[in-house]
Amino acid sequence: MMEKNKTLIIFTDSGDTIINEASQVYDAQEPGIVSQAEFIENAGEILQQLHEEGYTVALVADGEEASFQNVYRKNGLRSCFDAWVVSETVGQQKPEAIMFQTAMEQLGLEEKDKKRIVMIGNNLKKDIAGANRFGITSIWLDWSPRYYRTIEEEDWRPDYTVHHPSELPALLEELNRKLEDKAPER
User: The organism sits in which domain of life (predicted)?
Assistant: First the structure.
């Protein structure tokens, strides 16, 4: 198992955050199940890089369990996730707090750990509002025109905005460094 040596904990959505939703191919035998999809440019490599650098990464996504298993297993990236929270399994979708709480529970985190968590997502109404209401840092990946692009409610306002996944490693490293600078000596 990869050693987790980063203070920052990453929760991430999948569709239009790691996977390009426009590329999804649905299974002919199982309606509603994605059999394959392409990653956003460099997103698969970035996910692998974050895993290798020692970040704890949790998938927090709405959709069907089989779809996510198909896409990430086929691409050899399932092992990059330390927690796996899918709305089909939880029975609720983001922005419901149970999605984020389940990820925390799977990772053995406590309330005090919220200050260490960021949520990366493309949907202001679900990912960003959900993270903000839950009390964790929100990062909006705004590259896709498929969802809301206007902040209609105050809790839709992200803490950070990036325009492409390639901008994430530097931002995450900066946020991790700030956390580690504040942390007491071990």
Answer: Bacteria
Provide the domain count of the chain. Answer: 1
Q: What is the pTM of this model?
A: 0.94
Q: Report the alpha-carbon distance of residue 159 to residue 37 in Å, rounded.
A: 29
Instruction: Quote the tokens at residue 144.
Output: 């896709």
Domain presence at residue 23: no
Domain assignment of residue 56, given as a range: 41-182
CATH for 109: 3.40.50.1000
In a domain, 13, yes or no: no
What's the CA angle centered on 116, arms 18 and 140, to 5 degrees?
35
Exposed (0-12), middle (13-18) or buried (19+): which is 171, by Cβ within 10 Å? middle
In a domain? residue 69 = yes
Q: Is residue 28 part of a domain?
A: no
**pLDDT digit string, tens, across residues 128-168:** 999 999 999 999 999 877 777 788 899 999 999 999 889 99
- 66 with 29: CB under 8 angstroms? no
